[in-house]
Amino acid sequence: VQLQASGGGLVQPGGSLRLSCAASGIRLDTYAIGWFRQAPGKEREFVAAISWSGDTIEYEDSVKGRFTVSRGRSRNTVYLQMSSLKAEDTAVYYCAADKVVGTDAIFYDYWGQGTQVTVSS
């Protein structure tokens, strides 16, 4: 099983990025997907999550109204649309898969390599 987050990059404050999470070895449409991030010197933190059906979506408070998690039309890709980016959003972003949607990283079974998001002028 491999998950891969992509779409990171350098963006100015106030800008937008869309991250993608793809997988091989599992079907993402049968798993809840969580997005987490880790900034230098800080612990990994929850960002957003979507249930396998898409009916349940959760966000960390600081990203509510700015980030949107969604499933692609093929349902084998999950996106994290990030808008109104701030310097404090700078981190490595990871996607993870689990059968049950949640905010605690310890419960997620599969993790991908992260993608760097840098918000700077």
Your description of this structure?
- This protein is mostly beta strands and 121 residues long.
- It contains no helices and eleven strands.
- The protein has strands at residues 2-6, 9-11, 17-24, 32-38, 45-50, 57-59, 67-71, 77-82, 91-98, 110-113, 115-119.
- Strands 1, 2, 3, 4, 5, 6, 7, 8, 9, 10 and 11 form an eleven-stranded mixed beta sheet that branches.
- β5 (45-50) and β6 (57-59) form a beta hairpin.
- The chain is globular, with a radius of gyration of 13 Å.
- The N and C termini lie far apart (37 Å).
- The mean pLDDT is 95.
Summarize the SSE layout with pairings.
Layout: E1 2-6, E2 9-11, E3 17-24, E4 32-38, E5 45-50, E6 57-59, E7 67-71, E8 77-82, E9 91-98, E10 110-113, E11 115-119
Parallel strand pairs: 1-10, 2-11
Antiparallel strand pairs: 1-3, 3-8, 4-5, 4-9, 5-6, 7-8, 9-10, 9-11
Kindly state the number of beta strands: 11
The largest pleated sheet is described as: 11 strands, mixed
Q: Averaging pLDDT over every residue, what do you get?
A: 95
Residues in helix, %: under 10%
Spell out the helices and strands N to C. Answer: EEEEEEEEEEE
Determine Rg (CA atoms, Å): 13 Å
Structure summary:
By secondary structure, the protein is mostly beta strands. 0% of the residues lie in helices and 50% in strands.
